[in-house]
Amino acid sequence: MRIDLHTHSTASDGTDTPAELVRNAAAAGLDVVALTDHDTVGGYAEARAALPEGLTLVTGAELSCRLDGVSLHMLAYLFDPDEPELARERELVRDDRVPRARAMVGKLRELGVPVIWEQVARIAGDGAVGRPHIATALVELGVVGSVSDAFTSEWLANDGRAYVEKHELDPFDAIRLVKAAGGVTVFAHPLAVKRGSCVPESAIAELATAGLDGIEVDHMDHDEPTRARLRSLAADLGLLTTGSSDYHGSRKTCRLGDCTTDPEIYGEIVRRATGAFPVPGTGG
Question: Given this model, what pLDDT does residue 283 score?
Fold first, then answer.
């Protein structure tokens, strides 16, 4: 089985619609794909309706969190999307995205970049606006050569000149809320230092004690020594280890299935979940 547990659609900051994403996942030879848009479940219905036969859909989300001033992302799988407390927190994060993005556009303009809000809004479309949309605007303007080039201290990284904070969950609250909604939590790309500051390993240990289920190890932003370090940490803490592409369509260079999750780990995630269940494709 080929299992990719971290992808994004136009419901947040990917370039594939949810329907295109599941079709492309099948074409890439995946058996299981998780839709994990940022702080939203808005792509679920379209992805389910278009799910090809032979592909299983795992519903999820990537939750925006902050711990001691450091941003981090928590992948949540197979939770009940209608659980009210978690739904309310996702809404608070989404509601803060537009004013935050507008503030980042303002900072960029102060730095001499001729970006305008209307350009960013056009790129985001109906998705939850975020930094990748602003980064795409910088690519369009010729300020940077690629979306990843915008995520530096020069521009949009967590310590960047144009960075603006947004409402984010405390990760301990995120774990509690996801568990209460019957879901499973995995810390996304925990040591992706190229994105900015990362929480220390001691914080990962504290999150494990609080009920964190796993950490994302095989990811494009982790080199081999980092992956080995994370596997050792996971073994010490009793955490599951996943691998995923973090696919964003044409917005990033990674492809569906570039990193995958072991079937036994996937089976354990499904076993632990009680809020929702994987959806098998029937050729929709």
Answer: 65
Position of tokens 């739904």? 87
Are residues 115 and 134 in contact, defined by beta-carbon separation less than 8 angstroms?
yes
Q: Calculate the alpha carbon distances from 243 to 8, 32, 48, 203, 238 in Å.
A: 15, 12, 23, 21, 17
**Residues 167 and 47: beta-carbon distance below 8 Å:** no
Q: Classify residue 135 by burial, with Cβ atoms within 10 Å: 0-12, 13-18, 19+.
A: buried
For the segment 169-197, the average pLDDT, to the nearest whole number, is: 94
279 forms beta bridges with: 57
Confidence (pLDDT) at 194:
79
